[in-house]
Amino acid sequence: MKALILNSGLGHRMGVLTSEHPKCMTEISPYDTILSHQLRQLVEYGIEEVVMTTGYFDQILIDYCQFLHLPLKFTFVNNPVYDKTNYIYSIYCAKDQLLDDDILLMHGDLVFENLVLEAVINSPNSCMTVSSTLPLPEKDFKAVINDGRIEKVGIEFFENAMAAQPLYKIKKEDWLVWLASIEKFCDTDNRKVYAENAFNEVSEQCKIYPCDVQDMLCSEIDTPEDLKTVSQKVAEVNERTVYMCFSTEYIHSGHMAIINKARRLGRLIIGVLSDEAVSSFKRYPLIPFAERKALFENLAGVERVVAQDTLSYAKNLRLLKPNYVVHGNDWCEGFQKPIRQEVCDVLAEYGGKLVEYPYSNNPMYKELDANHRAELSMPDIRRGRLRKLINMKGLVTAMEAHSGITGLIVEKTTVLQDGKTYQFDAMWVSSLCDSTAKGKPDIELVDMTSRFRTIDDIMEVTTKPIIFDGDTGGLAEHFVYTVRSLERMGVSMIIIEDKTGLKKNSLFGTEVKQTQDSIEHFCEKIRAGKHAQKTKEFMICARIESLILEQGMDDALTRAFAYVEAGADAIMIHSRKKDPAEIFEFIQKFREKNTTTPIVVVPTSFNTVTEQEFKDRGVNVVIYANQLTRTGFPAMQDAARTILKNHRAKECDDKCMSIKEIITLIPEE
Ligand code: SPV
Ligand code: MG
């Protein structure tokens, strides 16, 4: 598309302001003249060629354009009789330059804001800017609109008319019709009328549609009074701010494209989501907040970068009151929908506006994201994430997984509630569930090789940190090997319980024979494990069985402090009582003396306590130890019975997951 700017005229209504240069060189802000403002906008929107008609002070105008050093190819066409003709003849003089492309036509005294130009350029049809909100001007252009199209343009029309400004995008096929009419006018010496008079003759074939810019800035400057009003509006436009929020850890061309669009609307403020907010809806960020913030701080055109602590924009919007919020249109559906609604509501409080651009589905970006995910699943990156999450969130939740598919459920399940997104932070590879899945009792019968196989299956398809149920840890001599293997695999934490001999599941309590290890012996095991580990991130958690085995609170606390002393990175206190009182008592007494060592709980029995209450009392990890197993297998039994009863599968159909859902859960790489 070529721009055609009409700058031949005298601009005599501007008085002394046009005594030394053409009107378009009048200053409208400390940094811009009307012309430099237009030309910079053209560059911004990717226009490369400008045909400019000249006349009055033509050499000064040409020198000025060159002085601006903009990446534009200029063709200047002089109208030698500029003082005796109207711009219809200037266009006629330039016609040979205007035959091969769509035309962006504007008068040289027109000042418009970027959004106006954007609307015109993006219009699928030929268009002219009009305003449905401005009153009809007495002496300026009005457009008569009929059947959604512009039928006539002129100052004399008032019926079915809207205020109109001479900014057009004219597609080549329409332009050639209009140009032919201009030629006809000029060839018959009709050179003192508007070019629009020639359009009015051919508006049936030259299809121009109105582009309603309402009360956005789009004004001609004809008089010193106009100059004052428009300059004030320009100052206002220059003060506008735009807000965008990012969680990304790398910037690709898609991000740059939308950032560039946002920049055109005003001074750009970028909100960077905090690590906690990112991990609440996505995965844990590989690049920490400070680094992600620095990415944007060094980006041209970004004026300010601020933290956004929650997925909700509300706090920052009320604080910064940006004129615009810019976002891709991908958030109209899915988990971001309520966040978008809240943005609209808050913007409405102070008259801000949401601007959405089409979301790019470029496969390259998907691939980048997949590579990024793959990196997250790498052992070295996954291992340290549990510790970081505990430090960041205070309390993390882990859900049981015993296979690739249950791992995927833990990885992907998200719940939207009150504008917030919830998901599990980590996975628990339970001995009970791992054994159950293999049809075996939970008595350390499933050997380590087989347990590692389960971890591997989960690791292969997920990225979240893994907590491994190590039962008793076995002999200290064996435990050291287990620690190293788990570390190598990328597991974040092993929990070992202070029992010895034939281990039975804790939920049996004293109903079965279970022997607690001695403090000294168990401490030895912890020390050996800590000594064996190669990385600093891997965690060994000591699980205290005193309450399960009814050995009393004092015994539990004595053990807890001894295990921490021996090097345990965390402690787990277990109980099989429904009433959480003994768990609460333990936590309180432990925290009186130790405020830092993470406390882990498995609230299978004391399941009325909420995560928030645990957090308030000083718990750091809540493990939901067996719920996927305990809900999944009854569903299978039910399906099996249904088929047996009905002697066919039809009745079972409604209970089944659809193939589509399976594909969503397990996408092919
Ligand atoms: C497991 O899930 O295997 C556990 C927790 O060890 S519990 O079953 O409560 O003992
Ligand atoms: Mg277990």
Outline:
By secondary structure, the protein is an alpha/beta fold.
Account of the 3D structure:
The chain is an alpha/beta fold and 669 residues long. It has four domains: 2-236, Spore Coat Polysaccharide Biosynthesis Protein SpsA, Chain A, CATH 3.90.550.10; 245-364, HUPs (Rossmann fold), CATH 3.40.50; 381-625, TIM Barrel (Alpha-Beta Barrel), CATH 3.20.20; 631-665, no CATH class. Helices cover 41% and strands 21% of the residues. It has 25 helices and 30 strands. The strands form seven sheets. Strands 1, 4, 5, 6, 8, 9, 10, 11 and 12 form a nine-stranded mixed sheet that branches. Strand 17, helix 12 (337-350) and strand 18 (353-357) form a beta-alpha-beta unit. Helix 20 (519-532) runs parallel beside helix 21 and helix 21 packs across helix 22. The relative contact order is 0.06. The structure holds sulfopyruvate and magnesium ion. The site of sulfopyruvate has 12 residues, from helix 17.
What small-molecule ligands were found?
sulfopyruvate, magnesium ion
* Model regions low in confidence, pLDDT < 50 over at least 5 residues: none
Biggest sheet layout: 9 strands, mixed
How many beta-strand runs?
30
**What is the molecular shape?**
elongated
Oligomer: single chain
Number of helices: 25
CATH C-level class of the largest domain is Alpha Beta
Count of the separate structural domains: 4
What value does the average pLDDT take? 94
Estimate the strand proportion.
15-25%
What is the CA–CA distance across the termini?
Answer: 42 Å
**From the alpha-carbon coordinates, what is the Rg to the nearest angstrom?**
36 Å
Q: What structural class should be given to the helix and strand makeup? A: alpha/beta
Helix-residue proportion: 40-55%
Reported CATH architecture of the largest domain: Alpha-Beta Barrel
Fourth-tier CATH superfamily name of the largest domain: Phosphoenolpyruvate-binding domains
Look up the CATH topology of the largest domain: TIM Barrel
